[in-house]
Amino acid sequence: MRNIKIIYENDRGESVVISNTFPYLLKSFIGGDGAEANITSSKGVGQDGSTITNVNLKERHLQIIGVIKDMDKSTLIKRKAKLLQVFNPKVQGWLQYEYGDVKKRIRCQVESAPTFSMPFNVFSVLYFVVDLVAPNPYWQDITQSKAEIAIWRGAFEFPIELISEGIEIGFREPSLIINVENKGDVHCGMKVQFKALATVVNPSLFNIDTREYFKINKSMVAGEIITVTTHFQNKRVELNKNGVVSNAFNWIDFTSTFLQLDPGDNLFRYDADEGIDSLEVDIYYNPQYLGV
User: Where is each Siphovirus-type tail component RIFT-related domain found (predicted)?
Assistant: First the structure.
């Protein structure tokens, strides 16, 4: 496992690095690539073969095999205890994979806490095995991607000479359309933020390719932010007003769709019934990958 680094951090903030150096040496990492599918099919009377009706991916099973080495027996025991503490089956976490420029992470549950073995007559080495399961089988980028549709650009530079006509210190980007590139292998959800700089009535986001849209039937005032999350099993609409976050599901237009990003290019246009020049829109997303 030369030059591969595995970093596991549980939800308590406890972490361990397993790489090509001691004290935690990575010997094998299994399950990082490929994805096993559940295939549902039907068969008609007299039909040769079958017709595939649905395909979905199973959870991903991961296994880490490594070695702890330390000439001091008490230190070896402490390093063993740290692995047991970090890979706690009662606490979920994130596993991060690094190899060269490739850096991906995946949400995990410890399926089997670390088990240890010691080679015969070798008291400074412990072999360990950890089994994990990822309910969502897709890997993600380490950092979230962001696309800004309507923003302000700075135009204030030095050196500066004051003139009677005044000075432009910024300007609003005029485009109402943006291409959001999903570099992942499958479609993914996203988080859309509508920000009101002044009064904005009924903001919306429209997918030019699919003709689907998401619309909020609300008059927003300056400073309000409405965040729409469209991830599978995590769909939310929230209003942030003066730092107080509340549920905003009741303002969804009944014909709205929780928009997804298809692999490749996705063209979006934002709109509002009134006050479109006072609307800023940001899109955050995590592309999903079938392997590392």
Answer: 12-112
List all residues 6 or more positions away from 136 whose beta carbon is below 8 Å from its beta carbon: 59, 106, 107
Residue 23: is the preceding peptide bond cis (ω within 30°)? yes
Span(s) in the chain for CATH 2.40.30.200: 4-41+53-138
pLDDT digits (tens, 9 = 90+) for 43-99: 888 878 888 888 878 899 999 999 998 878 889 999 999 999 999 999 999 999 999
Q: Parallel, antiparallel, or unpaired: how do β-strands 264-274 and 200-207 relate? A: antiparallel
The tokens for 201 are 């009535």
What residues form DSSP beta bridges with 240? 225, 245
Q: Are strands 234-241 and 93-99 parallel, antiparallel or unpaired?
A: unpaired
pLDDT tens, position by position, 181-207: 999 999 999 999 999 999 999 999 999
Q: Is there a contact between 223 and 196 (Cβ–Cβ < 8 Å)?
A: yes
How is residue 73 annotated by DSSP?
H
Whole-number Å distance between alpha carbons of 239 and 245: 5
Helix (H) or strand (E) holding 86: helix 73-86
Q: Which fold has domain 145-289?
A: Jelly Rolls (2.60.120)
- Residue intervals of the chain classified under CATH 2.60.120.880 are 145-289
pLDDT tens-digit profile of 253-262? 999 999 999 9
Specify the pTM. Answer: 0.81
The two tokens of residue 59 are 């959870």
Give Cβ neighbours of residue 112 (< 8 Å, ≥ 6 apart): 89, 129, 130, 131
Q: Give the Cα-Cα-Cα angle 256, 269, 255 (nearest 5 degrees).
A: 10
DSSP letter at 118 equals: -
